[in-house]
Design a protein that fits this description.
- By secondary structure, the protein is of the alpha/beta class.
- Helices cover 32% and strands 15% of the residues.
- It has two domains: 166 residues, Rossmann fold; 200 residues, Rossmann fold (3-Layer(aba) Sandwich), CATH 3.40.50.
- Helix 9 packs across helix 10 and helix 11 packs parallel to helix 12.
- It is elongated.
- The model has no long low-confidence stretch (mean pLDDT 94).
Length: 393
Amino acid sequence: MRKMTLRDLDPRGKRVLVRVDYNVPLDKQGKITDDARIRGSLPTLNFLLERECSIVLMSHLGRPKGKPEPKYSLKPAAERLSELLSRPVELAATVVGPDVEEQASWLTAGQLLMLENLRFHPGEEANDDALAKQLAGLAEIYVNDAFGAAHRAHASTAAVARHLPAVAGFLMEKEIDYLSRVTEKPERPFVAILGGAKVSDKIGVIDNLGKVADKLLIGGAMAFTFFKAQGAEVGDSLLEADKVAQAGVLLERFGDKLVLPVDIVIAAEPKVGVAVRTVAWNAIPAGQKGLDIGPETVALFSKALAGARTVVWNGPMGVFEVPEFAEGTRQVARLVAGSGGTTVIGGGDSAAAIGQLGFADRVSHVSTGGGASLEFLEGLELPGVAALNDRKS
């Protein structure tokens, strides 16, 4: 890794400002439904606590638009982290200010203070340097362990790194390590599987990975834009008409490297109990929506994955939240988990699917960042990574 990490300095006894990604899902009662991102930060936090550091934590949650909203308070995250660490985690009432500065100044070895939701302050998303200076004033070292927010140039991910020694935490390091293996020097054969609803979200990824991968397997609703580019009718399936021409360019550019579905599970609507049937990719009738890949496509994908030494998967194969359209995603998850090589799951829906289907412990790495992992796979520079100190050669 070209950026400095916690291993490159001695934080012993220092006060450390740690950017984490505790943007976790909450139910209607405000209870956390998936604490994976909180658990993902534990190696970094335990490393610091073992070295008698005091810790100031900061994160965002949801989209509160620059002002306090109680439903987006980080209180549930502070309580859950306290449980996981078996020690108190104090929650500040605000993001910055005299009271927060005083709280931070009183921290002793092994104590943790969590700032309130960064997005309660308008300067966070504006990448405001004045806010960054206030945040930096709370500590002596800055650690970014929030890969899920690394694609945002915000005060807590970019500007703050100008004011303190800035290094990557262990989760950030792990994310960059695995995603770099995929994009830079993958062990071959290398197969990429891309799904999800919109081809517009993945055009850059297809274009970038197409230069590196041996095969690109395309599923999900994005496949219908490729079908349309080949002259097929897609019924009432989700279609990005303004991306058909670009899909055609990708088909021409990558040829046989792009593997598209050959059969599709269709229905009138994606709901439980609806009548379903499977048809050929170019035989979707009017009034029907394509909602999953069919068994012949699973077999085709299985053949393409045979012997793969590197696999990256981003995006479900269908509307996996509805049982009638979950089989394609389930079978792809099974194939990826059983591939035997380095297997990297992109964040977002792919991470949710692999977890729900019980295969998370059978893959090499499940990314904690949906948008960040996509941009990394697209070959874009992530502001939160670029801002960290370079490792000296």
